[in-house]
Amino acid sequence: MDTCNIMKAIPITYNGINFRSKLEARHYIFMKKIGWNIEYEPEVEGVFGYQPDFAIITPGHCYGRDKIYVEVKPISSQAEFYREDYKNFRDKVHRSGILKKDSLLIVGNNLKLRDVQGHYNEGKIYVYAIRMLKENEINDQERKNYSLCSFSGCPEGDYEGIGLKESWNDARSDLIKTRRDEKCFYDVIDHNLCEEFFSDSTNIKASKFIEKSWNGAWSPLQWKGVDF
Questions:
Q1: Rounded Cα gap, residues 185 and 171, in angstroms
Q2: How many CB atoms lie within 10 A of CB 135?
Q3: Measured between alpha carbons, how far is 188 from 204 in angstroms, rounded to an integer?
Q4: C or N: which end of the chain has fewer Cβ atoms within 10 Å?
């Protein structure tokens, strides 16, 4: 995690891991709750001067790669990350060389870093992460659209196999889970913003599971020190 954040982060220990902030710990707990296999502060071979906060282990599911990397920032939107405030951090990441070999996903302090309609406009989806773009791409709206990463559900169960995928109103390669039929997974719609409930309640249950996991990830941390 970059130590030059706008907000001062106070380290916190949870489950034997010394996190640099409560926000990091919350994402750790959340990702564990939804079933992802993660590693904190992984070493990345051939990358210098930068270390991501997490690696998500994806056994070859992410474009044939075994890991994708995640950086936690106290941001509330995609636009905030691409402002001048984070230019030094973005430059450091580019110099490290990590983007030449792997994707780096940015997560923030909420589950919706963009307000986006889901596939076929059936409701608004969660945008949990954004794939970091090169500096010459950040003013390209189409690239920014396609860098969004939404949760994906799977009809194998009520909320079995929550995944993450790059999505712009379509069903592209899933980044986390193996699907029996890749064409079957769907954008998880935010049930709080649905104008009507679907006849198939699987999506609603998946949305509630994600929201409950995110809110529950805060409970063991709220009395452990204060972030300023």
A1: 7
A2: 11
A3: 8
A4: C
Task: Record the tokens describing residue 16, joined without a space.
Answer: 């034997």
Query: Can you give the pTM of this predicted structure?
Result: 0.88
CA angle 155, 78, 86 (to 5 degrees): 140
Among 118, 191, 186, residue whose Cα is nearest residue 155: 186
Distance separating alpha carbons of residues 32 and 19, to the nearest angstrom: 15
Q: Taking each helix axis from N to C terminus, what angle separates 22-33 and 202-216, rounded to the nearest 10 degrees?
A: 140
pLDDT average per 10 residues of sequence, the chain (228 residues): 56 90 95 92 93 87 76 96 96 94 92 81 84 93 91 67 76 64 71 64 84 92 57
Residue pair 74/38 in contact by the 8 Å Cβ criterion? no
Q: Taking Cα atoms as reference points, which of 37, 41, 102, 112 lies closest to residue 71?
A: 41
d(C-alpha 163, C-alpha 2), whole Å: 26
* Residues paired with residue 54 on neighbouring β-strands, in sequence order: 40, 70
